[in-house]
Amino acid sequence: MKILVTGGAGFIGSNFIRHMLLECNDVEIVNFDKLTYSGNLENLADLAENSRYQFVRGDITDATSVAEVMAQGLDAIVNFAAETHVDRSIENAAPFLHSNVMGTLTVLEAVRKFRIKLFIQISTDEVYGSAGANDSFTEDQILDPRSPYSASKAAADHLVNAYAHTYGVAAITLRCTNNYGPYQFPEKLIPLMIANALEGKPLPVYGDGMQERDWLYVEDYCRAIACVLKTGKPGEVYNVSSGTPTANLVVIKTILKMLGKPESLIQFVTDRPGHDRRYSLDSSKLRRELGWKPEVIFEEGIGRTVDWYRKNQLWLQRARSGEYRNYYERHYTRREETFTKAGTKS
Ligand code: NAD
Ligand code: DAU
Hints:
single chain; 12 helices
């Protein structure tokens, strides 16, 4: 099975590629990524020479390069590529609309043209909006996105649905809750808090810190996507979650305790504008119909995560300083130069 993964140099995409290459011997992966600030090829350095893995630098909004990469013959596409950070979308929504909406449209058009057998859209729980204290949203909840980021993801979901309905594109949409684990860009809550705590810097907590997120360990999500690739039903939407919403302050205090750092590092700061109070999803459809369930409870997952960042402080430093950005130039352009020289010689 040959799978095109868009946005595979990011957090979830790189974990998914590693999961698929290590768990499935018959899978080939093409990673198509623009390498924005959150695309980090160092996440996949250990797999760069794997004969079943190929990296292509490209933008999902560019119809020509999308068509080129799809022309090699693919069995499925998993579309992770997106602008993903809510705070950045509040600063400037335009790149979010461009990549998340126009990008998804461009990929859908190519899926139609190349008659790709299965398209998986990686959406988010944020499209449902904020959940009440006792809510746990199912797939038929009306969409109510409330940040520019979630509005762009909801628009993409509607396009996927429209392409399935109008053109018969075989598409599945996954809406997952907050992921955590290795290789997450340190602007997101958990890696940011770990990085700051390791350096003894203040931990900025928005508002009262009692907002809840339904944290899922990234490896559990990778297994869910693999399961959907295998037995998911085209036309369906599946929620993915741990089902255990936890307040931000609880998460932060757990991290501090694990690192042996004082709670005095916590610094309450101005709240995020329009901050969604709580996310909580009911993922019983995925459990019932495809037999998936989360395997890593929060206490274990956060322990593994803190350990990973503690042991990979060089990765963290390079991500924070921007040094990771020269990986592509060092490894890929040099290889192209060698190839051109060899070609010129012969
Ligand atoms: P990330 O920011 O770590 O990675 C995004 C990747 O997409 C990067 O490698 C980036 O270079 C690439 N990209 C961005 N724009 C592109 C474009 N126009 N063309 C090609 N590549 C482009 O994000 P992530 O946390 O890994 O999220 C992946 C997907 O999962 C996103 O679609 C996001 O909306 C969704 N999601 C994330 C979470 C979470 O908790 N992280 C939860 C639910 C859903
Ligand atoms: O719910 C899924 C979504 O999770 C994904 O679709 C998004 O791509 C992903 O970025 C994430 O969005 P959040 O806004 O929930 O994640 P973030 O890590 O930015 O924030 C998590 C919570 O922590 C949120 O309530 C805001 C709070 N926070 C965040 C940061 C960065 C702080 O209190 N301080 C911070 O410095």
